[in-house]
Amino acid sequence: MSGRPRDPELEQRLLAAAWSILTEESYAALTLAQVAVRAGAHRSDVYRRWPNKIRLVADALSAHVPPVSEADTGSLLADFRVYVDDLARSWSAPWMDSLVGWLADLADDAEAEAAFLAMGLRRGDSLRASLDRAVERGEIPPAPDGDLISALLEGPLMHTRMVRRHPPTADFLDAVASTAYRIATAPAAVR
Fold first, then answer.
1. pTM above 0.85, yes or no
2. Candidates 3.40.50.450, 2.30.110.10, 1.10.357.10, 1.20.1250.20; correct CATH number of 67-184?
3. Burial class (CB within 10 angstroms; exposed 0-12, middle 13-18, buried 19+) of 83
4. pLDDT (tens digit, 0 to 9) for every residue of the chain, 191 residues total?
5. Residue range(s) occupied by CATH 1.10.10.60 in the chain
6. What DSSP character marks residue 190?
7. Are the CB atoms for 191 and 147 separated by under 8 Å?
8. Which of 109, 122, 153, 179 is the most buried (most CB within 10 A)?
9. How many CB atoms lie within 10 A of CB 41?
């Protein structure tokens, strides 16, 4: 016997409510009951869809984290600069503090962790496409280490947000893109 079909509009309201709490308050402040109240729903509506707030936040992030631009500027360096601009907007957003708190709990839920990894892979699609185009143009040697390039582009932004606690400057973003570009264009023996 199957139950009532899920109401996609209700699910979107619940995800929007969770996102609102994350951006206006914090991950620590978010409860499933509070999400239900904010969405004008019953607590059971939330609990039927998500067994805990870790999974709810994974779905809210997937639904609301801004996408990374698909840049095709004709230059890998310019593509990198567009990519770090998008990453910098995310890492400078107020909701990022909630994400940092959520990451600490992520290890407790394998399904939520898998959803987060899938979201990260989707956000990296534009970088992989830029690298593939640069190889096709002969701008870089074949088979650049995409994970290394991704870490070189996003790692400094994470550090700036989490350790330095301030948004990156345009000069800093230029330096990040240029450094990753120099490594991506280095002879294979150096990489």
1. no
2. 1.10.357.10
3. buried
4. 444 566 779 999 999 999 999 999 989 999 999 999 999 999 999 999 999 999 999 999 999 988 888 889 999 999 999 999 999 998 888 788 878 788 888 888 898 899 888 888 888 899 999 999 999 999 998 867 888 899 999 999 999 988 888 889 999 999 999 999 999 988 764 44
5. 8-63
6. T
7. no
8. 153
9. 18
Residue found by looking up tokens 């997937």 in the block = 62
Q: Which residues of 87-107 are buried (b: 16+ CB within 10 A; e: fewer)?
A: bbebbebebbbbbeebeebbe
Cα 139 to Cα 118: distance, rounded to the nearest angstrom: 29
Task: Answer whether 146's CB lies under 8 Å from 123's CB.
Answer: no
Expressed in angstroms, the distance from the first to the final Cα of the chain is 58
- DSSP one-letter string for 161-184: IIII-SPPPHHHHHHHHHHHHHHH
